[in-house]
Amino acid sequence: ALHGRVLGPLLRPRLALALVGLASAAVLYAGADLFMIGLRALAPALAAQVESVYAWSDDAPLPVRLTLLCVIVPGEDLVWRGMVTLPLAARCGPWLGCLLAGTLFAIAHLTSGPPLLVIAALAMGTLWSLLAVRTRSLVPVVTSHLAWDLVVMFVRPL
């Protein structure tokens, strides 16, 4: 009941917040694209791991992959941004709380894939945490996260 009262307002849909999420996904994608250009030049072996990050999505039909994303992304954001980040930010301050939450998100990905995935989870987890704290909503975070995943997995992989 407590989580419903606390998290419910964070999930209230508003078009302006969804648009903030889409804009943040575009900015994050552009930043990641530049990061990958540099990584390919400086650490090609690490950059080559991007293929294995995307490999899981080749194992299932497209409708299954899309359905999974529509379940996994909001679930991750509800837990990591709503239940982990916001309390940490309230206790430790916004910057440290978001960095701690991003670090925990990255640690949770240690067994999910190659080191590049952990680096991405740290960066994206921290940035999505900052977005949640800044907007006091999970709507732009879920929108950004879902748009990000759809683009990097199905439209234009990095």
Fold and architecture overview:
- The protein is an all-alpha fold.
- The chain is 80% helix and 0% strand.
- The protein is built from eight helices and no strands.
- The longest helix is centred in the middle third of the chain and has 31 residues, at 62-92.
- The mean pLDDT is 90.
In short:
The chain has 158 residues and is mainly α.
| SS class | mainly alpha
Mean pLDDT: 90
C-alpha Rg (nearest Å): 16 Å
- How many angstroms separate the termini? 41 Å
Low-pLDDT regions: none
- Which percent band covers the strand fraction? under 5%
Helical amount: over 70%
Name the helix and strand elements from N-terminus to C-terminus, one letter apiece. HHHHHHHH
Please count the beta strands (DSSP E, at least 2 residues each).
Answer: 0
The profile of the biggest β sheet is: none
Shape: globular
Q: What is the count of DSSP helices, taking H or I runs of 4+ residues?
A: 8
Key descriptive features of the protein:
single chain; 158 residues; mainly alpha; 8 helices; 80% helix; globular
Question: Which helices and strands appear, and what pairs or packs with what?
Answer:
Blueprint: H1 2-7, H2 15-42, H3 44-47, H4 50-54, H5 62-92, H6 94-108, H7 115-135, H8 139-155
